[in-house]
Structure formats: structure tokens, C-alpha cells
Amino acid sequence: MVRKLKQNEMKGHLTYRRTPIEAESPEEWGYDKIKYNLAESSVPDFILGDLGLDLNNLQLSYSDHRGLPELRQSIAEEGDNITSDQVLITTGAVGALFIVVTSILSHKDHIVLLHPNYVANLETPRAIGCQIDYLRLSKENKFKLDLNQLEEAMKPNTRLISLTYPQNPTGTVLTRTDLNEIIALAESKGCYLLLDETYRDMTFNKSPLPLAASLSENAISVSSFSKAYGLPGVRLGWLISQNPVLLETFLAAKELIFICNSIVDEVIGSKFYTDFRTDFLKEINSHVSTNFKILEEYMTNNSYLDWIKPDGGCISFPWIKNEVDLSIRKFNKVLKETYKTFIAPGRWFEVDERFFRIGYGYPSKTELEGGLQCIIAAIEDCIQ
């Protein structure tokens, strides 16, 4: 029989648990059971054949431990004062987040963490067992980050501030002024800022913020090929830091966890980033803009839902109004099983079940329209 460890016996050990967002994901439920998939936080998946790659003569060797030099160079060119040596290619953004957080934090340290958030940003600090203060976004404050709350949360042992912008799941963005103030706070407190910039290329009618890592040695940028580029099957992400000591530690962590990335993935990713990324972003941002207008009109013209209109990304975080009397559990069941429509329920983000995330970047225009109508139908079926 396996003995259950007491909390004080687990210090020094990472404590893992499966989360609802993974256990209940579309992949786990089965794509064949879904007609309208509004749960995805990404854009349509890119087709490998569109790259025109011939990999027949690719030598299946270990790759550069830091990542293909040409890929790192392409990524570095996105930021001022960033060199390819300051870029580390990882297994998705999730790999980058794991490396950063486990390299910087121990159970004796403190982190200030944005909430709600992408699951890896939440669960890795919890697995370490470090002290956590949450910066909780609220609809009452229009999901805006409260910088006073951030400063008040800082402690002598604060080692990391962890933020995601454009934000998942709310779609809110960070201003340049706010970013500068946060970096200045991190520098004054002698801690680091981890900024997950996965949706950086998807800000409505605005230029992207500069890479956080380009602004300070205390800032670490993380991103990925999955969300904005439609290559989640190419398990590639990256982290950027100007701090040579941190980078050496991050590289050591990567080498212990998986040595290097798949050379196949890196060649595919490099080809996409160099030859296709610019045109793909124009096309995908046009698609996202079209779908957003559909979602915006839908939210304006129904009496059951409310939202804070997002400013970036391809996700939104509406909620069922309190005056709508229904069983949320029944609504989620009916929507998924009767209408075969998948959304990301509030429990995935540890918030009130009346909230849910709609991903409007992944579905086609027709799929989005169909799924949105099914949400209304399921609500009406469940009103008591």
C-alpha cells in the first residue's frame, strides 16, 4: 500500500496533480464528439505540406542544445539589444515556464502570480511548494492589473513576478507604461519578471509591446509556436534573457530535462518562422478580426451573457449574468453532450462557474456562429 505523504514530508519534492483544463480537454474528450470547438486558445492548425519541406535527407542527430542558431537569430531580431545567444529554444512555452520557475524558486521563496492564468503558470509554483500571492483580476475592475496590489504583495523573499499578456483567458493587454513600472519594481526589489508573451503578435490595432527581456536583465520573455502561429504539434517555445548567469542555469536545466529539442521540430519551426510567419500573421489576424466582429455582435445582442471586451489574443472570458437562473452544471453538460459544443468552463481557471472562455481564433466563421447559437440554446434549455 502506498503511504500518503504529509505536507512537511514533501518539501524538496515536486508535487504534481492533473488539472481540469488538461483532464477535460478536447483531446481527452475526443475531437470526434465535438461539432463546435470554442474551447481552443489558439488559431487554426498550420498544414505541414504548406511549408514545402523535404526532410528526406535530414540527419536525425542531436541538435544544438540552445536550439538551431538560425531559429534563435530570427527570434532575436524581434527585440532591440537581443542576440541569438540570449534565446533558448524549449519544448513549448510550457517547457520554458517550467525551466524558469524551477530554476529561480524554491519552497522558501515567494512569487506574485497573476490569476486567472494559463495552467502551467499556476501549477509549477504550487508543485514547488513556494509561497504565492495572487493578483486576482476581476470583472468589476475590467480585468485590469492593479499595480498598487502588485507592490503591496511584494515581500523580502519575493523572487519572481509572473504575468501573461495579452492575458489568457481574458484577452486584456498591458500598456507600455505599466510594463515599465513593473520592470522598475522588479529591479528595485531585486527579483525577476517572467512575462508570458505567447499572444504578443495579436493585439488589436496596436503595435506589440517590446520584448520584456529587451528592457531589463531582470525580465524574462517566454513565447511559443502554439497559440498565435498554429503549430502546437511542433513542440517548440522559447525563453529570452539578457542575464548571462540565469541563461547558463536555464541551459543546464534544459539539458537535464530533455538535452535538446527534436531536430525535426526545429527545422520545421525555423522554416515557418523565416519564410511564412509574416504572411501567416496577416492572414490569421484577418481571420481573428472577422470572428471577433461576429462575437462582438453576438455579445451585444443577447440578454443572457456579459463580458469585458478583449484587446488582444484570440480568447474572451464572458459570463452568464447572475439574474439568469439556471444550473451551471446542467448547462455545461447539455452544451457538451446534447449540442456537442465545447467551451472552456470557469473551473478550468479556478473561478466562478458562470465564467467560461470562448476561443474565437480557432473555429471557422461558420463553426463560431454555430457554437455561439448552441450556447444560447443550452442556456434556454437549462433556465429554471
Task: Provide structural commentary.
The protein is α/β, with parallel strands linked by helices and 384 residues long. It has 2 domains: 144 residues, Aspartate Aminotransferase, domain 1 (Alpha-Beta Complex), CATH 3.90.1150; 219 residues, Type I PLP-dependent aspartate aminotransferase-like (Major domain) (Aspartate Aminotransferase, domain 2, 3-Layer(aba) Sandwich). The protein is 37% helix and 14% strand. It contains 11 helices and 14 strands. The strands form 4 sheets. Strands 2-8-7-6-5-3-4 form a 7-stranded mixed sheet, with helices on both faces. It has a 3-stranded antiparallel sheet with strand order 10-14-13, with no helix packed on it. Strands 1-12 form a two-stranded parallel ribbon. Strand 3, helix 5 and strand 4 form a beta-alpha-beta unit. Helix 3 packs parallel to helix 9, helix 4 packs parallel to helix 5 and helix 9 packs across helix 11. The longest helix has 38 residues. The N terminus is likely disordered.
Average residue pLDDT: 93
What's the count of strands? 14
What is the highest CATH level, the class of the largest domain?
Alpha Beta
Helix content: 25-40%
Radius of gyration: 21 Å
Short synopsis of the structure:
The protein is of the alpha/beta class. The protein has helices spanning 20-23, 26-29, 69-76, 92-104, 119-128, 147-153, 176-189, 244-257, 263-300, 328-338, 365-382; strands spanning 36-37, 87-90, 110-115, 131-136, 158-164, 192-196, 219-224, 237-240, 305-306, 315-316, 319-320, 341-342, 344-345, 356-359.
